Amino acid sequence: MPDPALRREPLDGIPAITARGRLAIEALPPATRLVLRGAAAAGAAFGLALPTAINTATTDTVRAALMLGPDEWLLIAPDGAAAEIAAAFAGIAEPHSLVDVSHRNTAIGVSGALAADVLNSGVMLDLALAAFPVGMATRTLFAKAEIVLWRTGPDVFRIEAWRSFAGYLHGLLADAAREYVKG
Q1: Pfam family example for this protein (predicted)?
Q2: What is the chain's pLDDT, residue by residue, as a tens digit (183 residues)?
Q3: Domain boundaries, the chain
Q4: What proportions of the chain, in percent to the nearest 5, are helix, strand and coil?
C-alpha cells in the first residue's frame, strides 16, 4: 500500500472556480471518513451526538455525522483521526460496523449565491432553502456519479464523492459555472 503521506489528492493543482464573489467551487482539504452501521448509541464514542432523522447531519467545529439510512452514518473528522476513532469504538458492546473510507472519498465545496443553480445542472433535487435546508444531507446523483450532498450553510454545499469521479464532477461543475464566470 502506498504511503498515505505521499498520496496525491485527485484535484491537486486544479484551481478553484470563482465568479465575482457569487460562486466558488474548490477541492476541500483531506478528511477522515468512516461509515458506521448499526450502533445508534455510538455518538459518545465519536464525540458528537449522531442524528436520528435520515438525511440530516449534526456537526461541531471539528466533526460531522450524516445519517444516510436507517442504520447508516457517514462520519467526517480531521484527516488522520481514523485510528483514534476506531479505538473509541472498540469498547462498544452494541453490534456495529465501522469502516474507514477515507482513501475512497474526496470532497468538493460549492458556495455562493449561485451554488444551488450550478448544482442543479446535475442534481435533480429541489435545492431551494425551504426544500433542502441547512443540515440536510442525502445520497443522490450528480449526472452519472453517486454523491453525498450536504448543505452546511444557506449558500454552502459539500459534495462527498468517490475519488475516481472527482475530475468528472469538477469538470461538470466548471461547465455549469461557465456562464456565470464569463458574465
Answers
A1: SoxG
A2: 455 556 677 777 677 777 777 999 999 999 999 999 987 667 778 889 999 999 999 999 899 999 999 999 999 999 999 999 888 888 887 888 899 999 999 999 999 999 999 999 999 999 999 999 999 999 999 999 999 999 999 999 999 999 999 999 999 999 999 887 664
A3: 14-30+103-183, 31-101
A4: 25, 35, 40
CATH number of 31-101: 3.30.70.1520
Q: What DSSP assignment string belongs to 109-159?
A: EEESTTHHHHHTTT--S--STTTS-TTBEEEEEETTEEEEEEEEETTEEEE
> Cβ atoms within 10 A of the Cβ of 105, count?
21
